[in-house]
Each structure stands twice: as C-alpha cells, then as structure tokens.
Amino acid sequence: GLTLTIKTMAEDMTGNYKCVGEATGETKAEAKFKVSSPAEHEDLIDPDEADVVIVPGEDVTLKVKKLGGVITTIYWECNGERIASESTEYKIVNTNNDNTLTILDADEADAGKCVCVAEGVGTEDKAVFNLNHNTELMITVNPIKEDVECEAGKRKCTMKYRVTAEKANEAIKVKRNFVKICKLINGNLRSCKKAAKACKGPNFCRRLKPKVGDAGKYVAVVTIDDQTAESDPVTLTVVRRTEDDITSLLRG
To answer: What region, left, alpha or beta, does residue 239 occupy, with left being phi > 0 and alpha being psi -120 to 50 degrees?
Structure first.
C-alpha cells in the first residue's frame, strides 16, 4: 500500500485528501483532515502556595483555587507520575471552589514537583508546586525546672536547660560555647556567662555560689550559625537561713 506522510500540518491544510490511480484516474482511498488551532491558555486554577516544605511523618496538603472557568478534567501529577483518584498514599478532594491533594505521611522521597492540571474546552492550565526538605536550622531550648531555690552561700546552686538543634532533619551537636546563660534585668540580658563545664549537652547549666542579690530570672541564649534562640526564664530564689532555721531543720 501507499502511505502519505505530512510532516508539518498547518491550519490551511484542512480538507479532503484522495489517493487516485495514475493510469485509471480512479479514486483508491479518501481521507478528511481537520487541523485544529493550538489551544488557547485560560487561567482556570491558582495555587494556594507554590513552595511547600516537607516535614517527614506529617501530611502535606497542596491546594488550588478554581477561578470560575469551565473545567472538564482536573488531575494531579507528582514527579512525572499521575496520581490515581483512589490511593493509599494520597488523598484528592474536589469541590466547586477548589481541589486539594494531600500527601499522607510524607517523607524525603516526596520532595520534587507536583502539578495540578486543569483542562477546559480548548484550553489547559497548570499549577506547579515545589516540594522541598526542611533545611532550616531548628533550635530548641527549655528550662529543666522553671523555679529554683538555693541557700545563700551554698556552692551547688544549679540552673539547667535542655538544648537541641537540627537541620535538614538531622541532629546537630550543641557545644558548650554555643550556650550562654544570662540574668534578665529590666527586659535586658546582663551578666552572661558560658555554660558550666560540669554540665554537658543536651543539658546545659549555670552554677554559682549565690548571694541574695543573685536572685532573679535567668535565660539561656543559644547561638548557632548566626541564629539565636532563647529559653523561657528560670526564676532563682535565694534564701538566707538563720541559726533558728537551721536548728528547726535539724530537729524536724
């Protein structure tokens, strides 16, 4: 048989095509071609938030708003793979106003690109979402006890704070020189000192032989890679015991 190949179709090539015998002039085959115009773009959907950070173990929801045009088909693709409407890894919810894709129990493998494709009559629109790992430095610092009472003149008066740090979901070792413990005076940090050698991470501390004037609030300040985090204050109460108090304690 004979084959007719048209490499590049143009709009003016719409019409009937015939295969005619050279000797007899008889029509051997006939075909009709219609060349459609390229689909025009129309805004059908709008992404709620194009850049999304993945936190492993948590659900990630991607949402597009429908802009009012006629949508005949809407679907999602993630990293080149079309998402089935019924899936154990994803959940798709479609309403009159929006469409959402939820990645259930997301992990690092879900990073990449997800695309919502909306098709209308002779038109198509796409919303692209970039999914990234959590690369921010996260510092957590909390007091072990928020209220500490010490006796004036006694050496082992200790305020402890628990400090942890992670980046890209990996723990970072917190060194003693990252941690300072300061007295909070009129809203300002004063008398800052590096965490004591006797206390190692993740629990860092400040030790002192307190005087009555040392009473007050103390805050742990952690600085890693130019990023700083502060704890809630620890309230230090310093008591001075009299001989009668000591006698009473011994008798008790």
So the answer is: beta
